[in-house]
Amino acid sequence: MRFRDRNHAGELLAEAVAQLGLERPIVLGVPRGGVVVAAKVAQRLRCPLDVVLVRKLRHPLQPELAIGAVGEGGEATLAPWARRSVPAEAIEAEIARQREAIRRRALLLRRGRPRTSVAGRDAVVVDDGAATGQTMALALELLRTEGPTSLIAAVPVASPEALELLEERADRVVCLQAPASFQAVGQFYERFAPVADEEAAALLAAASAVERDV
């Protein structure tokens, strides 16, 4: 199956997520492309829309090597070996840098609106696809520390390997297709142009306005 664009994928994914019958859902898009898909899911579920922001923590001597991750509301998670091999001051400095990067990104995307809590809610984490699943897996791991009722990973398409990883981290996974022929997320879209921060921010603002009017 090829989706016309992210809106089309979101509409189809929304119908599948709606079948779960979630009682107190909140939809969290992975910026930036995931926000377009997530907006359609939130519209269908008539629930709040927000973003989930995650940053990898980098090794001080090997920036390409991740030693953990940090999100907005939870504690940083570290690989078991990190505290043994990386000086504590280097870890704390990296956590501070990445938290500041998250703060700036949150301000840009939410335009000053407060973050929506996932505590006691069914958190549906949405992206436009999952090639490795690592970003969403990190998001799920960090969100778990914030006390959601359940964690649902929802994607229109994933590689079989990514799907397996998400099934390990989420309580439930909604994936429309995970073909063995998977090479890249974009191959399953007719139109897959990059999404600008401004477009993602506008979708979040529109969803917030609708929520206030309800």
Question: Helices and strands in order, then pairings?
Answer:
Blueprint: H1 6-18, E1 25-29, H2 33-45, E2 49-51, E3 54-58, E4 66-71, E5 77-78, H3 82-85, H4 88-110, E6 122-126, H5 134-144, E7 150-157, H6 160-169, E8 172-177, H7 197-213
Parallel strand pairs: 1-2, 1-6, 6-7, 7-8
Antiparallel strand pairs: 3-4, 4-5
Helix pairs in contact: 1-2, 2-7, 5-6
Model description:
It is a single chain. This protein is of the alpha/beta class. The chain has two domains: 6-53 and 116-213, Rossmann fold (3-Layer(aba) Sandwich); 54-110, PRTase-like (Ybab, Chain: A). It contains seven helices and eight strands, in the order H-E-H-E-E-E-E-H-H-E-H-E-H-E-H. Strands 2-1-6-7-8 form a five-stranded parallel β-sheet, with helices on both faces. A three-stranded antiparallel β-sheet has the order 3-4-5. Helix 1 packs across helix 2 (33-45) and helix 2 packs parallel to helix 7. The longest helix has 23 residues, at 88-110. It is globular and about 50 Å long. The termini are far apart.
Keywords:
alpha/beta; 214 residues; Ybab, Chain: A; 19% strand; 7 helices; 2 domains; 3-stranded antiparallel sheet
Summarize the structure.
The protein has 214 residues and is an alpha/beta fold.
Parts with pLDDT < 50 across at least 5 consecutive residues = none
Mean pLDDT: 93
Number of helices: 7
The biggest sheet, with number of strands, parallel, antiparallel or mixed sense and barrel status, is: 5 strands, parallel
Question: Order of strands in the sheet with the most strands?
Answer: 2-1-6-7-8
**CATH C-level category of the largest domain:** Alpha Beta
By secondary-structure content and strand pairing, the structural class works out as alpha/beta
Rg, alpha carbons? 17 Å
Count of DSSP strands: 8
Give the amount of beta strand, in percent: 15-25%
